[in-house]
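S.,

As promised, the heme C run. Input:
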Amino acid sequence: MKSRWGIIFMLLGAVAGLVILGLAGIGAVSLLRRANVTAPQAAPRLGIVLPPGFAADVYAEPDGAELPSVVTFGPDGALYLLTVPGKIFRIEDKDSNQTGEAVTLLYDNADGTLVQAVGLAFYEDKIYISDSGRISTLEDSDGDGKLDKLTPIVEGLPSLQFPDHSNNGIVFGPDGKLYVGVGATSDHSPPKDPLEASVLRMNPDGSELEVFATGFRNPYDLAFSPDGALFTADNNPSEMDATMRYLPPEELIFVQQGKDYGFPRSYGNAVVDGSTPPITEFFASVGSSGVTYYASDAFPPEWRNGVYVAQWGTGANVALDRGLTNGQSVVFTPLERTEDGNYRGDWKPFVVFDTDEGLRPVDVTVGADGALYMLEFTFSTIYRVHYTGEVTGSTPTPVVQINTEPIPEFAQTVIDQGAALFQQGVEGAPPCMTCHLDGGRIGLGPTLAGLRDVATARIPGLSAVEYVRQSILNPNAYIVPGFNAGYMFQSYSQSLSAEQIDSLIAYILTLEAE
Ligand code: HEC
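Predicted complex:
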C-alpha cells in the first residue's frame, strides 16, 4: 500500500493544483496527508475482481501518461488517451493480439497550452479537446504525424472557480452537435453563471451554443446510446454546513433537453422542487467519472444495454473522516425503457479495484470487439475486459444462503407499543421519526415501508427480524445504498430494552410498501 501512495504523492507534486482528484470535492491536503512517501514500484499487474466468466488483461501502459483522464476510440480504430496535463497518445494493436503495443505521443503540450484537459472526442476525423474554460480542435497542420494546430471553438466557459470543476467530458450526438458537461462554480450554492452546472450543446464550430439541460453539480462525462439517449453521472457535494447536513448520493442521469435535475436543491430521489430525478442513486462520494453505453452483444445479456460508470473513489474529507470507502470500481446499470419514455435501472458492481494498491478507474469505453476498456488513474494502465464464459479460479464462490424464515405474526399490542416508541422515542435517544418520517417514510433515513419485503436479502443468513434488530443495535453493519454510514443514532442499544426493540421490530415489519 505504501509504495502506491508514494507514486500518487509524486504525481501530485508534479502537477500544480489537484486536477481531477476533485471529482467529489477531494482536498489535496487529505490525500497528501494520507500519502506515504517511499520508492515507486511497478504497477500491480491486475489488482481487480471481475464477475464470473470475464477476463482482463493489461492492454497498454503508456510511458509518460501520468494523470490520465480519457480513453476513447478514434475513427481509425486506434485508442486515444488524454491526460489532465494535456498529453495525447495514440495506441494501436498492429498485430491484432489484443494488446496496444504501438504507442505514439501525438501531442506533448510542452508549452502548457492545455490546462486541465478532461474531454476528448472525434468528429469528422478531427480531434476535439475540452480543457479549462475552452473547447478546441487540434490538427496536424504540417503532416508530420503530430498535432500542432489548436483552434478554440468556444472559450470562457465557467472553469476552476470551484476546485476541479470545469467544462468536462465531451461527446457528439446523433444530431451532429457537440455536448459538454460543465461543473458548478461552488460545492452547493445557487448558480451564478448561466452556463455552469449544466450540459451545453453547440455546433461543431462552436456556434449556436445553448444550455441543453441544467441542475447538475459536476457532470463529468457524457455518453449516448445507439438510439440517441444521453446519459451522465453526477458527483455529490461534500462540504457539509447548515444547508447541507448530510452527504447526498451520486446519480446516474438520463439527460433530456430543457430538464432541470435539481442541483443545488434536490439530490437523488429526494426531489423537493419538482425537478427530474435520476435513474438510480449511487453511494455518496464514489467519484463517478467516465461513462459509456454498452450495446454490443459480446457480453452476456445481464451485462449489456446499459451504462458503465468508472467510479474513481471517495476522496472528500467529509467521507474519509466517516470511514466511507465507496467507489474504486466500475459499476453497471442495465437500462429498461419505461412507458413514459424514461429509463429504469439499478446499478451493480462490475469490476472492483484493489483499494490497498490505490487503484482508481477514471474512464471506460467500448471497443469494436465488444470488450470494455478501462483506464486506471494511479498507474495509467488501460485494461481490456472481455467475456470468455469460462469460470476459472480455484476459490469457489461461497454459497450464501438467504434466510427464508417467514416474518412471524406479531400481537397487535406489541405493534402498537412499537408504533408509539417509533414516534416518541425514549429518554436519552431520539425518536426514530426524526429521520424515518411518520409511517417509516423516507427522510434523513431511508423508507422503512416495505422493508419487510427485502429485509432477508439485506445480509445473507439473517432473518428479517434479526436484520432489523441488527439495524437498530449496530446501524453501520449494513449501509442502505444512498445513505450515510454513521448518520443513524448509534446508541439505541444503551437506551432501549430488549422488549422495546422487539416492539419496534414488530412495528417496522408490518409497514407495507407504499
Ligand atoms: C439520526 C437519524 C436516524 C434516526 C434517529 C434513526 N435512524 Fe434508522 N437509519 C438512518 C439512516 C441514515 C439509515 C441508513 C443508513 C444505514 O443503513 O445505517 C437508517 C437505517 C435504518 C434501518 C435499515 C433500513 C434498511 O432499508 O435496511 C432500520 C431498520 C432503521 N434505520 C430503523 C430505525 C429505528 C427503529 C430507529 C429508532 C429506534 C431509527 N432507525 C432511528 C437514520 C436514522
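DSSP finds eight helices and 27 strands in the chain. The chain has two domains: 2-387, 412-508.

- D.
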